[in-house]
Design a protein that fits this description.
By secondary structure, the protein is an alpha/beta fold. Helix content is 36%, strand content 25%. The chain folds into 2 domains: 1-79 and 157-168 and 185-250, Rossmann fold (3-Layer(aba) Sandwich); 89-154, no CATH class. It has helices at 44-52, 73-78, 95-105, 110-123, 139-151, 169-184, 196-202, 220-224, 230-238, and strands at 6-15, 18-28, 33-37, 59-64, 67-69, 80-83, 157-161, 188-192, 205-210, 213-219.
Length: 250
């Protein structure tokens, strides 16, 4: 039996007197498309940063693909694909150069890294200006490159923080189809997004975070039970329904 793709036990991250993540327990099974939702400031990006190894937990434990962090950080990072909220790209490389570099960093032989980089550049329609540096890319183009970099080594686990933000409809659709295809082949996707309609279409299981704690978790069917949409459940759970409040001058 495969170990969980992600297992978090009593995970906490404290900044000063404030707990950004406060006793988080989460178990994500392999082969799932998992949505990790919450309002601004709920602790989603902090959690992703701890999973990536970019932030050190104050307490608690993290296990990815059956391996504990940070003891097996190097091995884990070889097997995951990352699309952070802020794309960490090398601005003075072209998209092709960057993807080839990433492929080499993941241990691909140079000819394979070059071939896959070329194929991904074409797939994401970034080949119109092959000599253009990433510094000149739009936000949507940067997200496409980040997504391509996450795919190049065919990882088992994807950690994605707002991957579709700033991406046009054509690019976003391509990215969604690629991720669904990876899940069909046994990979796991852990996704944060403020666009609940996207989560509702893609994810089979969802956890809702508020003030650093999971306040609701379940399958998409369970979360939608008795509600018209995931958005209705989300608003109800986090206590954000202010529809009755109206300013006199509006």
């Amino acid at each position: 039996m495969q170990p969980p793709a992600i297992e978090l036990c009593d995970l906490r991250k404290v900044y000063g007197a404030r707990a950004a993540v406060d006793g988080l327990n989460l178990r994500v099974l392999p082969g799932s498309f998992f949505g990790f939702l919450g309002p601004n400031g709920a602790g989603k990006t902090t959690t992703i940063r701890m999973l990536m190894g970019l932030a050190t937990p104050t307490s608690g434990s993290i296990s990815l693909l059956g391996l504990p962090m940070p003891d097996h950080a190097v091995e884990i990072k070889r097997r995951i694909g990352l699309v952070p909220d802020e794309s960490l790209l090398f601005d003075h490389l072209t998209g092709l150069e960057f993807l080839e570099f990433v492929g080499r960093m993941y241990g691909l032989e140079r000819p394979i890294a070059r071939e896959r980089a070329s194929e991904l550049i074409a797939l994401f329609e970034l080949d119109a200006e092959p000599k253009k540096l990433i510094a000149g890319y739009s936000k949507g183009m940067r997200k496409r490159v980040a997504m391509a970099a996450a795919l190049i080594h065919r990882p088992q686990l994807f950690l994605m923080d707002e991957p579709f933000e700033g991406v046009d409809a054509v690019g976003a659709r391509l990215m969604k189809e690629l991720l669904l295809e990876q899940v069909r082949h046994g990979a796991t996707v852990f996704l944060t997004s403020h666009v609940l309609e996207v989560v509702e279409r893609l994810c089979d299981r969802v956890a809702i975070l508020n003030a650093g704690k999971v306040v609701l978790e379940g399958s998409m069917q369970e979360l939608r039970a008795g509600s018209a949409s995931l958005e209705d459940t989300f608003v109800r759970v986090i206590g954000g329904d202010r529809s009755a409040e109206v300013l006199d001058w509006l």
